[in-house]
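Researcher: I'd like a candidate sequence for this fold, 141 residues long. If you have to choose between options at a position, lean toward the conservative one.
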């Protein structure tokens, strides 16, 4: 499966997620199973496009459903982009990648999904979670 198919319509890079099946070893599966109160064999995610939503919230996803209803692959293809479903929020920002969605989508629109996935996605995620914010220039490692 290509990285485009493993990228959520909202811009999350499922292939870089800790819960993505190829990124999990047995110790991580056990840790997440305990944290989410799940059986170990229910932790691994195949990506939201394959599973119809994200394992992090275990419910239907309004953004996923919206893109599907509009017959698009990504939010950036919509005439309403960016909409309130992509609005950044401080709650959970330290552990969930929700605030990088809009940036990812803009980069995908500008350079293409495959190029973004191969050249930028991992670095964006690393800066998001490990970078230090520098006023006027964004995160720096």
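Model: Candidate sequence:
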């Amino acid at each position: 499966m290509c990285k485009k198919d493993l990228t959520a319509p909202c811009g999350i890079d499922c292939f870089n997620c800790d819960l993505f099946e190829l990124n999990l070893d047995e110790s991580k599966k056990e840790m997440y199973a305990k944290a989410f109160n799940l059986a170990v064999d229910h932790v691994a995610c195949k990506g939201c496009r394959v599973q119809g939503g994200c394992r992090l919230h275990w419910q239907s996803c309004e953004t996923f459903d919206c893109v599907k209803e509009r017959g698009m692959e990504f939010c950036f293809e919509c005439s309403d982009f960016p909409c309130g479903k992509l609005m950044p929020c401080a709650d959970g920002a330290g552990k969930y990648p929700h605030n990088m969605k809009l940036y990812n989508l803009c980069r995908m629109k500008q350079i293409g999904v495959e190029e973004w996935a191969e050249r930028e996605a991992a670095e964006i995620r690393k800066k998001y979670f490990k970078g230090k914010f520098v006023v006027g220039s964004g995160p720096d490692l």
